[in-house]
Specification:
This protein is mainly β. It has strands at residues 2-5, 8-11, 14-17, 21-26, 32-35, 50-54, 57-61, 64-65, 74-75, 78-81, 89-90, 99-105, 110-116, 132-135, 143-144, 156-161, 164-168, 171-172, 175-176, 180-184, 189-192, 200-201, 204-210, 213-219, 222-223, 226-227, 231-236, 242-246, 260-263, 269-277, 280-290, 298-302, 310-312, 315-318. The chain has a single domain (2-318), classed as Neuraminidase (6 Propeller). The strands form ten sheets. Strands 5-4-1-34 form a four-stranded antiparallel beta sheet, with no helix packed on it.
Length: 327
């Protein structure tokens, strides 16, 4: 089941902000069925947030919010449980355009969202952040994490294996980057990862099943300053190293950026909406799947059905099919 919420929307030639949430059941044959999401609203509009599941409950964290007295983008520092105005968790930093990933320990008994980087327009010494923090439902306030080697936003994160997370691309003080970082979550240690083929920001990433293995895929965003439909997959070499290799393009004419990407329990990877060109936001969901360990067997398909409204700067979260009845 797929949750899509927040961001900026376009519908009937009108562009605006939304607190509305859309929830879809996705069948095995690739059909989307919209479910009743009226009780799963955001209490405040926000764009460029992150999110994830904590103990089965979807949380949306950070992002930019509108205020009643100032008509401009202000970074937020709370994590909101969808459909609740009471269960917010306060983050240590205001963050828009950070990245997040679920960290589990003790066989799932301990769950935290690790939130990294982002931007805070109110900072006196640069608007990008290199701090990170852990968000948990056990505390109303977050706990600090390892500091990144440089300030970073509009990046993404994916699990690499059970003990390692990969931080990919993004924008730093010096512009877009093609760097990646490995994070050992048991030791809180950062090491350099393989460089991307091109600089990338506003992209999405996650794990993709390829035969018996899982590989990190990175898709869409802005490459070399231009919107792109390119994807890169981190593939092993016989010498034990790993390098990024080009995979099949997302089937859109110009590209897809600032959408939302999410891995499915079945091992595929979804790209959910995003900007196709200025003021043109996608309503489509594309699915990438591979039948073997070979890149040549990876294919994109467009799911049957569309989002109710086109979106960018939103968040997508996969939840179990038992999360919500969908008749």
């Amino acid at each position: 089941m797929l949750i899509v919420t927040g961001g900026r929307i376009v519908a009937s030639q009108w562009i605006g902000k939304t607190v509305d949430t859309e929830i879809y059941h996705i069948s095995q044959d690739g059909k989307m069925k919209q479910c009743d999401a009226a009780e799963h609203y955001l209490s405040t509009w926000r764009e460029l947030p992150v999110g994830g599941l904590l103990y089965g409950q979807p949380f949306v964290c950070g992002g930019g919010v509108s205020t009643t007295d100032k008509n401009y983008f202000v970074a937020n520092n709370d994590c909101q449980k969808l459909g609740s105005r009471k269960d917010n968790i306060v983050m240590s930093e205001k963050r828009s355009s950070p990245a997040s990933i679920l960290i589990t320990r003790q066989n799932g008994a301990e769950q935290k969202l690790w939130i990294t980087g982002g931007a805070n327009e109110n900072l006196p010494f640069g608007k990008y952040l290199k701090t990170t923090e852990y968000v948990s439902t056990n505390k109303r306030f977050s706990g600090s994490g390892v500091v990144l080697p440089k300030r970073l936003k509009s990046h993404c994160m994916s699990h690499y294996n059970q003990s390692t997370v990969l931080i990919i691309g993004g924008r730093s003080d010096f512009g877009a980057t093609q760097a990646s970082l490995f994070m050992n979550i048991d030791k809180d240690e950062l090491t350099e990862g393989p460089e991307l083929i091109k600089t990338r920001y506003g992209h999405e990433c996650g794990l993709l099943s390829m035969g018996e293995s899982k590989r990190v895929v990175m898709a869409g965003g802005f490459k070399g300053g231009s919107l792109t439909s390119d994807i890169e997959i981190l593939m092993p070499h016989p010498d034990g190293s790993h390098n990024w290799m080009t995979g099949p393009n997302i089937p859109v004419s110009l590209g897809l950026g600032f959408g939302a990407g999410v891995a499915t329990p079945e091992g595929s990877f979804l790209m959910v909406a995003g900007v196709k060109r200025r003021s043109d936001f996608s309503t489509s969901v594309f699915q990438l799947a591979c039948s073997t360990s070979s890149l040549s067997t990876c294919r994109w398909t467009k799911l049957e059905g569309e989002l109710f409204v086109g979106r960018k700067y939103h968040v997508a979260i996969m939840v179990p099919s038992t999360y919500l009845p969908c008749n």
